[in-house]
Amino acid sequence: xxxxxxxxxxxxxxxRRELDRFFTGDLSTFKTGFGQNLGSxxxxxxxxxxxxVATCDIPGLxxxxxxxxxxxxxxxxxxxxxNRANEVKEENLxxxxxxxxxxxxxxxxxxxxxxxxxxxxxxxxxxxxxMPKTKPDTKKKIDVxxx
Length: 147
Prior knowledge:
This protein is α+β, with helices and mostly antiparallel strands.
């Protein structure tokens, strides 16, 4: 039998993550039920040595004007809208689960990033945002003048 190290705060971390997900979601989910998180993007964020990368699924964007990306004080904000022409008359519609409307998501970034050199690519319904990290301030010794 393999022993697993005891991590007393593991359950608290899971609870924190669930609370973050709950409070950053769109309140319109109350109308549709907890199982469907419509209007809120699901975003993966990871970092490499030189950049922070955010990837999110946004199927249905038709043109680049449909999405806006802002970075302010290491907060990434993605807003936009998905517009679909009525493909079927409403009286013939039995179920509608694909999202239509405005969306917004703000995420705290794990490292300081520069707004210069940010690139965003949208392909096959996936938006990828690459943000270069800023160089940390180098340690500098300060001389004290004694009189």
